[in-house]
């Protein structure tokens, strides 16, 4: 996992800032199916916006869930606002 430059971070924020989340994380948390879907979206678009539903927050905090998903998908956690977060992963060359 690599850090993002300020310019790249701004670019990702401009792309997804007003967009609706494409992934919703429910009570099953970071399941294998969810991680597979996030990987698929990262390969296609390089970035994903996800929202953590209240039902997922019974055992873990939102930041903890977002960081876990970022680590498991080898993506960078660009921003976390409330229960919504953005992941970025450049395509392999």
Structural account:
This protein is α+β, with helices and mostly antiparallel strands. The protein has a single domain, classed as Translation Initiation Factor IF3. The protein has three helices and four strands. β1, α2 and β2 form a beta-alpha-beta unit. The chain is globular. The two termini are 15 Å apart.
- How far apart are the first and last residues' alpha carbons, in Å? 15 Å
User: Low-confidence parts lasting 5 or more residues at pLDDT below 50?
Assistant: none
Q: How many DSSP-defined strands?
A: 4
How is the main sheet built?
4 strands, mixed
Radius of gyration: 12 Å
Structural domains: how many: 1
Sum up the overall morphology in one term.
globular
What are the key terms here?
Translation Initiation Factor IF3; 22% strand; alpha+beta
